[in-house]
Amino acid sequence: MRAAALVVLPLLAAVLSLLVGSTSLSPAAVASELLHPHATGVLHTIVWQLRLPRVCIAATVGASLALCGAVLQGMLRNPLVDPYLTGVSAAAAAAIAIAIVAGVSAAATPGIGFVAGLGAALLVAALARRGGGIDSNRLILAGVSLSTLFAAIVTLALVRAQSNQYASTVVAWLAGSMAGRGWPELATAAPYAALGALLAFAVAAPLNALRVGELRARSVGLNVNRAQWIMLAASSLLAASSVILAGLVGFIGLIVPHIGRRIVGSDARVLLPACASIGAALCMFADAVCRRIVAPAELPIGVLLAFIGVPAFLYLYLRPASASSRDAVTKSI
Amino acid sequence: MIELRGVTLDVGGRALLHDIEARVATGEFVALLGRNGAGKTTLLRAIAGLHRLRSGEISIDGAPSAHLPALDRAKRIAFVTGDEIFLESLLVRDVVSIGRFPHHRWWQWNAAPDDDAAVDSALAAVRLEAFAQRLFSTLSAGERQRVWIALGLAQETPILLLDEPTSHLDVGVAHDILALLRRLTREGKTVVCALHDINEAACYADRIALLGDGALLALAPPDAVLTEPLLQRAYGIAFARRSALLPDSVLVARSHVGT
Questions:
Q1: What is the ipTM of this complex?
Q2: Residue A204 and residue B135: Cβ atoms within 8 Å?
Q3: CATH value of A2-330 in 3.30.559.30, 3.20.20.100, 1.10.3470.10, 1.10.10.10
Q4: What pTM, to 2 d.p., does this model score?
């Protein structure tokens, strides 16, 4: 039942996202265009060059952020961790802001952001090293403080931006949006996102073992150091690819793992696919709403997610726990 | 069989274990005694392969432990510790299932039939069958301790190391757990167990290893170890024997009896 829902939900969101936009399309028209990939015409362009890549990008971003959050929260055994903790996004944003202000071509900025994001992850990992492994507290401290530094660089870039046009481009990046992205961006980011997802699924069993603490995980034979490096690599790839696709999209990476644990429990073998599915569905759905709600303009997805998602989450998660909701956390493993 | 030869270990330049020579036979119950900071936990962790030695060697059934891959070691030695940790909402069964980790590769996602059997029999051994679907966080201290032991049992290792499994437990539950360990040794498991209660050790252990400041002061049957000079050395206080209900005589600090 739950498994079926986790498959159907993203599909529904994808269909909705294909139909909805500044012009609403009929299901029949969309289906006909999808079945004839080599046709021409305005409708064809809308479906194949605008809607479909947007749907795929939203699914990739949502799944990546949710997986990344689930991996990092499990690795650091801290439910407050989000994908941006490791400094990936802050560094990417800083690099992109500098690139925009310096007048680098728009085509090159995602690549610059990606490299800067991974670079920051490496730097944070190097600072967090202790012995052969990664110290959770050091990782959090290094990530938070470097993120602050990168945020200051973004501010500096904004202040130095010589025209309002630069500044608004930078702000658009920071707000998180998939407007104007298409197949080329997806083609750049998807391989890294896929690699990140593969690594995330590969550490499902180690994530499960870590649920009873690092010492016990080691005593049942887990090479904790190696597992942590893989988890960090997975989360960095996932966060960096989502940043170059959509800028900074909050909420999903922090909250979806919590929703996932509520629905399927904390067994990573079930939780990770569930998070990917919920994250993708949520992001596609939110993106569709963003395109429709103030059409022909677009609402940044980060804004929408914060306005709708946060109160909904607070209601679900922080209301006084009843016995049945506690059961729901664990029953379905 | 566990063999320690010249085991020396230090952490951050501070010597924690010094030149320890010991041999524990298969099926033996050895209790590890010594005051706080004497090195009991460190010694157990060293045997479990969780600490690197500065010198010396630990071998498990003749194989040098340092050369064993982590997963192989986890198939031979289970280390049970009761340190309290933050736990997500985990069911008792989920916690115990983590003991099956060494029997899988990372990419083997499905539980094998022998996993279920091992978890079931581990739960049965600690008499927690009825608790399998309970949330770990709802258990009492004694029940939790039994879950940690079940996790170790689910590893299906010939050797079980336990770090103070009876601390914070009432006397009834403590004796329950020690009787369980005793029963396991009769089934052929080797048990090394750090304890704080000298009388518990005297009741259940085949031999007692007495640690003092990182050195092994004695490793012998209880009667030979629980002598005044040795205990005085290990704990720094004088003991006296007093008649009691269980066991028939217990050791208490001499100042309390006024002799």
A1: 0.88
A2: no
A3: 1.10.3470.10
A4: 0.88
